[in-house]
Amino acid sequence: MKISLTVNGTGYEREVEPRTLLVEFIREDLGLTGTNVGCDTSQCGSCTVHVDGAAVKSCTVLAVQADGSSVTTIEGLARNGELHPMQQAFSDKHGLQCGFCTPGMIMTAVKLAESIPDIEPPAIRHGLEGNLCRCTGYENIVLAVEEGARQTAAHSPFELEPAEHKITLREAERRAAERSHA
Questions:
Q1: Interior CA angle at 152 toward 145 and 122, to 5°?
Q2: How much is the pTM?
Q3: Which residue has the higher pLDDT, 86 or 98?
Q4: Where does CATH 1.10.150.120 sit in the chain?
Q5: CA 20 to 30 Å from 102, out of 26, 92, 132, 176?
Q6: How far is residue 112 from each of residues 11, 12, 14, 54, 148, measured CA to CA in Å?
Q7: What mean pLDDT do residues 73-93 have?
């Protein structure tokens, strides 16, 4: 089957087998190996990418389902040689050890930070529930996401909520429910 999609701002047209997973297409056909294959069952989140602005686990999406979509991988976050604020925060706050889960964590965290700019640690933990790390105790990951959200808001071209407004876990869940029904 022929598919056409945009990955990290570049258009691609390729023939793929209908059963090819998006993660396989990204890694094998395009050579973008930052997106990892961890569990193949959507349990770990190491394959998370953005498809048309939503964080999705690419091991559960067929490449043909992404036909016509815009996909962003971890390689597409940096701009003009500068790391995305969330990538920089993971480095600065030591939010990684072996690094295997890091691309998926960052991709999930970017969307979390976009939806809840001044997020508190309980809501971060809740938002990262679909991403597993086998190395860390998550504390530095939470610190990195909190800092990354703060830095993303500071670098964002659009108007966000006032920095002094903290979002509780209950508010984060309410907003997520509203988004899923919109």
A1: 30
A2: 0.83
A3: 86
A4: 85-181
A5: 176
A6: 26, 28, 31, 10, 10
A7: 94
- Tell me, what amino acid is at 128? L
Q: What is the DSSP letter of 134?
A: S
DSSP 19-71: T-BHHHIIIIIS--TTS--S-SSSSS-TTEEEETTEEEEGGGSBGGGGTT-EE
Q: Please write the tens of the pLDDT for every residue from 2-14.
A: 999 999 999 999 9
Which one-letter amino acid corresponds to residue 120? E
Tokens of 71: 């996909």
CATH code reported for the domain at 2-76: 3.10.20.30
Instruction: Indicate where the chain has its CATH 3.10.20.30 domain(s).
Output: 2-76
pLDDT of residue 165: 38
Q: Is the pLDDT of residue 163 over 60?
A: no
CATH (one of 1.10.150.120, 3.30.1300.10, 3.40.50.720, 3.30.70.330) for 85-181 = 1.10.150.120
Work out the average pLDDT over 55-60.
95
161: pLDDT strictly greater than 90? no
